[in-house]
Amino acid sequence: MTQFIPLLELPDIPQHWFRFVDFDRLHMRENNDTVLTDLIGRLKLVYQLEEAFIDGRRALKRLLYIQDARRQDLKLSLWGTLAFEFDVDMIKTSPPLVVMAFTSTKVRRFDNTIVNSGMSTCMFINPAIPKIEEYRANFNMLYHAPKFITTSSARHELAPDYRRQDIINVSTLNLQAGNKDKSLTFICKAKITKFMVQRGWYYLACPTCCKTLRYKIELLLEDEDDSTTATIIGKAADTLLGIACDELVNAKGEDDKYNVPPAIEKAKNQYHVWRIGYDMISW
Prior knowledge:
The chain is α+β, with helices and mostly antiparallel strands. It is built from eight helices and 15 strands.
């Protein structure tokens, strides 16, 4: 016989429940949709709605950049109805810090890791969960408000003439993410605050001889206002670190590509002037 027992006090029932995956671990889920992925991050860049093709079909798409509490960036593409219903006007009138949670996303890799929304994806703006307090502690300035990117603003509306190679800050550099002129390079003063080596920090440049090793290191660059990611490869890294990759791995015995050795770690937290482009970085 069913019995009903009245509760004298109601327990706190959470409005939301997520199983967030760290950005550092997303590579383990690339092209594997057995378990879909929940993500949380500060909304950093919002691109305009555009038409694109997916599986041979035309669809609406909106690209976002989100950033985790450790200031690592991630590209996230919203597709179809989710892209169309993304409320830009509400985001623009929200307080500067906008934290978004996304459920049931799919992790892919093209030139870099990118996450796509799927049929089951839901998005939440500033959800009432404890995790959001970490973001409030780390991103509490007006310049942490999302930036809104259009093709025209990325190409024309920024004041400096970059072909004269003015030094720009990281926040301005991030606005150039939507610039389709891949021949441009930019000069930026920033420091390395993290080496992201989940895919390693060197690679075999000559599979035939199996001897030539080159650096390929993903960096987190920061200045006083913002952060961005970049990848330094080959001779530019040799110059920065003061030791060739072959020597560090073979002569010094630092062959664990997933562990940052002291010779690389010492380059952190020192400001350099970087030349950054679509397919190059130097300092």
